[in-house]
Amino acid sequence: MPRLATAATASIALLCVCAWSAAHAVEKPAVYKWVDDQGVVHYGDSIPTQYAQKASTLLNKEGVPIGHTDATKSAAELATEADAAQQLARQKQRDRFLLATYTSVKDIEQLRDERLAQIKGQRVAAEQYVASLGERLTALQARAQNFKPYSTRPDARRMPDDLAEQMVHTLNDIRAQKTALNSSQEEEAKTQAQFQADIDRYKELRTAQAVVR
Which H helix or E strand runs over 58? Predict the structure, then answer.
């Protein structure tokens, strides 16, 4: 009986020692690692409030990383990421469209040429209209020479209201058509650039498909 009691007492003591060791191992605080605004690395049991929003790493007692917290992103950073995600989604949608719509680069070039021809036709028509408006304005200005304030004759009459209105309207039409011509040129350049981008991207996608196969 005494030997059994001694053995039992020893076992209990050993269990207590293990439990004490385990408890103290858990209780040992972890160490945080962070970098301040000057780029200096710091270690501590806690992170100062002013650096709480920055990235940090949690280390165990051996200095091995066991956790990581990313820096809190600003509204501008979140907006930039959202914009990048939208651009990527649009690009993927465009890629699917290119692959589903065209069977070759020639298909894209054919559509490009048709669009450019259409724009050119509209521009030619606008240029012809501007020319006709210029001729009309010249004729109206010639008539205006017979009236004040253009005529130097003492008996010259005041310009009729309808003639003055026609001149103003013609001038406004010329300005509007010239603005449309400038827009047409910009549209032509934009269309050319867009189709070239589609051709380049289409080639990239087809090349990538060939490599995968």
Answer: strand 56-59
CA 133 to the chain's CA centroid: 42
Instruction: Please name the residues in contact with 127: beta carbons below 8 A apart, sequence gap of 6 or more.
Output: 181
Q: CA–CA distance from 134 to each of 75, 130, 139, 148, 169 (Å)?
A: 55, 6, 9, 22, 12
Q: With CA atoms as reference, report the closest residue to 177 among 126, 118, 124, 122.
A: 126
| Predicted confidence pLDDT, tens digits, the chain (213 residues) | 444 444 444 444 444 444 444 444 444 568 889 888 888 988 888 888 888 888 889 888 787 888 888 878 878 888 898 999 999 999 999 999 999 999 999 999 999 999 999 999 999 999 999 999 999 999 999 999 999 988 989 899 999 999 999 999 999 999 999 999 999 999 999 999 999 999 999 999 999 988 876
Q: Is 198 buried (19+), middle (13-18) or exposed (0-12) by CB count in 10 A?
A: buried
Q: 54-66 burial by CB neighbour count: b if 16+ within 10 A, else e?
A: bebbeeeeeeeee
Residue labelled with tokens 């409030």: 49
- Tokens linked to 127: 């240029």
